[in-house]
Amino acid sequence: MLVKLNVDNFMSFEKETELTMIPSNKTTKKKEHKIKIKSTSLLKYAVIYGANAAGKSNLVEAFNFIQYCVMKSIPAQAATMFCKTREENSKRNSSFELQFTLDGKFYAYGFSALLQERKITSEWLYELYQNGSAKTLFERENGERPQLGRDIVLDKLDTLKMQTYLEDFDEKSNILFLSFMNRGKKYNKNSKITFFKDVFAWITENLDVCTPQTSLNSFEYYYDDASLIKINELIKTFDTGITKISIEEITQDELRKELPEPIFNEVMDNIKRKLEDDNIRDFKVSMRSHESFFNIESINGAELKATTIKLKHGNSFYDFNFNEESDGTRRLFELLDILLNKSENKVYVIDEMERSLHPKLTSRFIELFDQMHPEQKIQLIFTTHESSIMDQELFRRDEIWFVERDKDNNSNIYSLDKFKERYDKKLSKAYLEGRYGAIPAFTSFKFKEE
Fold it and tell me: Looking at domain 1-214+341-450, what is its CATH homologous superfamily?
């Protein structure tokens, strides 16, 4: 689970900015939103409000940027992603840190970089203890060779491996050492450096970042009978008019009509090459876009079979294709993955969660999320403009955040918990009246007659 995000000199955030999932001592309502890990409690939600261009999406992009850098390397576009409100920021380090829990342990992983040069300047990983102390797992400073912590005692085999790895890593200034240690490296079960693998897996697999350009749905639930029954039950509760969802086989010609010709040819060539080259007997690939669901599989070497989903409305004679549904309905299908997921330690970070949804549907989704994950170690962090869900019946005060630009056009983030409010106060009304800031400030404009 996520404990904190810290980011500095990134996009609209010039100064060090912190989003924390640690609950406030001042808030006593909705105790069920606190999930305890050893003696530390963490919040289930972070709901982030702000005017357009205030910096909400940039906060989500910080999660996305960290994950991308860990999975691959510093991207080319990073050269312009420092905070541009001051000229000197182009020469100043940008820093990123995630604090999180994994298997009962607490970690802090981060790095700093000169983004304009796409150069890593430092990197660190610590194990954090409940008493406030920390154990260094590795550090890397000023382009020097990474160093393991003094308390990390390796056996002879790992010592030889690390010597080789460190020599190979020299002068790789745009790649994170955490990434390098997960490229073709094998770890013994009892190795003292498996933390490289564990931390990498948490950042790349447990952190699920979704922007308006990406999809949430993994598609696999629709091919599990029990999950498909659950999906049918869920979709009915949203009053979309859909009464049944089913999986139907389609021909390759039908699939070809649904996909652009170059994409269809590339997908089919890759699948056939995979089956031939690797001698794989069973193969399945899912394709998901905002308008389509497709699955292609081969079982025991049989001919490729393509399937898609069909939707029935009431007593309609004909079934509907997914692309015939409204944007709001398609958006609900994207969010169903979150409701069905049973994995522990999953952190969903979503930009504009209410996109294309009616306010009542957004509220209903939150209610179902609570019902289906009552004690599960899973967190939902999202940006929104939907003031109707700013309700103390849905969220704690310390789960509601605001992003606002200052006079220098830098983004600042703060929690509702800093304001003293009665529990019976209508938060959405106070927010729209400007009580908490983070709303658009309009200037007057007059049309002049020629």
Answer: P-loop containing nucleotide triphosphate hydrolases (3.40.50.300)
Q: Is the pLDDT of residue 431 over 50?
A: no
Q: pTM to 2 decimals? A: 0.85
Distance CA 385, CA 226 (A): 35
Residue spans per domain, the chain = 1-214+341-450
Cβ distance 69 to 402 under 8 Å?
no
Tell me the average pLDDT of the chain.
85
User: Residue 5: how many CB atoms within 10 A of its CB?
Assistant: 24
The CA R_g of the chain, rounded to the nearest whole Å, is 24
CA distance 243 to 432: 37
Q: Which two tokens stand for residue 181?
A: 């240690």
- CA distances 254 to 7, 145, 264, 305, Å, are 47, 55, 11, 12
Higher pLDDT, 10 or 224: 10
- DSSP class of residue 12 equals T
Which burial class, exposed, middle or buried, applies to 252 when counting CB atoms under 10 A from its CB (0-12, 13-18, 19+)? middle
Counting Cα atoms < 13 Å in the Cβ hemisphere of 193 gives 23
Q: What pLDDT, on a 0 to 100 scale, did the predictor assign at position 424?
A: 46
H or E stretch at 364: helix 359-372
Q: What pairs with residue 106 in β-bridges?
A: 101, 128
**Quick check: 97 pLDDT over 70?**
yes
